[in-house]
Task: inverse folding
């Protein structure tokens, strides 16, 4: 097993699938994590060398079991992409605080657990990457984002902590701010009148993640912002 290994969390039908496909095309054996086992098992058949693992990243015991399985099946990951996301839309009056807690566990605590488990091997090799998919909620609070923005802001800060800590050891940590509506079936249904140019494609996000992994050590990015050319910002 000489091929490098990439672990992707939150492998849904949009960005997660695109990330898995891009890194598989680049020669990686991809470990795909999602709660929906059926979907990722079907994707496993499309990507030679990949493996599907049913896992809720908030379950720390199961997450540890899965990482051990990945190391046994594929090898130690040199790239971690934390794409799993939790949250809901509503004002602070609308939703129960447990919704915020669940989002925090997915967006922040799971990232911490993954980094604690995987970063030491990357440091020992002097090479690795941790890439986190975020969005503009990490930089601003709006009334309808009360149960989402605080967790994404915490996620961005944790990513910055990791970047400053791990960078000198050769581990590149980057946070991708996605300032756009991702082009997937449910967003097309929600925004039927939105022009095509207002969406960002999952493939474009995956391509940028791939680019981050290829960056020369003399020019590493941390904050990477992506938005369609029509996006008002």
Result:
């Amino acid at each position: 097993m000489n091929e490098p290994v990439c672990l992707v969390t939150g492998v849904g039908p949009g960005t997660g699938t695109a990330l898995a496909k891009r890194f598989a095309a680049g020669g990686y054996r991809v470990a795909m994590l999602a709660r929906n086992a059926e979907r990722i098992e079907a994707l496993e058949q499309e990507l030679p060398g990949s493996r599907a693992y049913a896992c809720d990243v908030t379950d720390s015991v199961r997450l540890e079991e899965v990482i051990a399985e990945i190391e046994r099946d594929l090898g130690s990951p040199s790239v971690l992409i934390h794409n799993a996301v939790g949250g809901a839309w509503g004002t602070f009056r609308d939703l129960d605080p447990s919704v915020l807690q669940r989002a925090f566990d997915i967006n922040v605590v799971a990232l911490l657990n993954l980094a604690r488990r995987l970063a030491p091997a990357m440091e020992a090799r002097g090479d690795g990457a941790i890439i986190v998919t975020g969005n503009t909620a990490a930089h601003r609070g709006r009334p309808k984002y009360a149960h989402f923005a605080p967790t994404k802001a915490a996620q961005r800060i944790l990513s910055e902590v990791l970047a400053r800590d791990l960078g000198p050891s050769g581990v590149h940590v980057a946070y991708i701010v996605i300032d756009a509506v991702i082009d997937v079936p449910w967003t097309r249904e929600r925004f039927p009148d939105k022009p095509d140019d207002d969406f960002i494609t999952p493939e474009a996000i995956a391509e940028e993640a791939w680019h981050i992994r290829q960056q020369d050590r003399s020019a590493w990015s941390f904050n990477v912002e992506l938005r369609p050319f029509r996006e008002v910002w």
Q: What stands out?
A: The chain has a mean pLDDT of 95. The longest strand covers residues 128-135.
